Amino acid sequence: MYHRVADIPVDPWGLAVQPVRFEKQITRLKHSRRVVHLHELLDLERSRTPSEKPLAAVTFDDGYHDVYLNARPILQRLDCPMTLFVTTEIIGTAREFWWDALARVLLETEYLPDSLTLHVGGKDCHWRVPPFSNLQGRDRVFREIWGALRVLPHQAQRQLLTKIGIWSSCDLSAREMHRAMTAQEVRNISDDLITIGAHTLTHPTLPAHSADIQLREIADSRRACEEITGTAVRAFAYPFGDHSDVTVRAVREAGFDLACTVDARSVGHNPAPLTLPRIYVGNWEADEFQMRIEDPSL
Ligand SMILES: [Zn+2]
User: Fold this and answer.
1) pLDDT over 90 (residue 79)
2) Rounded Cα distance, 139 and 181, in Å
3) CA of 43 to the centre of ligand 1 (A)
């Protein structure tokens, strides 16, 4: 499970792998595994004999532009299939994902007012904001506000982000380095090697919302992906990996065959297709990468 391939200076969740390292990782993966499309994985695993190479599938979540720019040429050069799960409402907008905008304010902006009050979930929350020299303190505030925003409806997230932008005097329009793909880029990247999957409309924490909202987020993102690519979309990834029984039912009702969580395990022999585990990949050298995919419990 990847998210981004880029050199970025501030990356609080470790979402980015540097292009050189990504190339080394995929080279190593191709050497030790037979890398197949996600939609082939379960059938091929059933028919695989023990003497054959173990299988692997590569996925990317969210739909960052740097995947188009940096990951795609490497995947093409190494002939490595991949599934890209796209958050559809942010495609082609001038906004960044809310967590990047929040990191921009709290972790990348030197001068900020020393206190922040936000009305979150019906109550006023106050934060003391440490100076930039206290990065640990800034990071703590960042994670607290991130946690408060994560479960809110998308409109509320956007309103609070606008407030934080005004409070900080930060321009929160999308930076080229952090933007999502355009619809044209999603269309271009979708080919025999790269398959598009859905990742909701707005990247909510699905179980925090009603069954109706969950179904709309899931089913409408599938329709949006199909409209962009002109092909059937069969796979889904749960934002933040979060899912409840209601979420899984909605994914089934929306017509998906496969859905990915972030449970850090190998897929194994008899997996549940709508709760497939995945292994997070960090900005690791090839040896560490190899070690961690062999033993995800590390
Ligand atoms: Zn995501």
Assistant:
1) yes
2) 27
3) 26
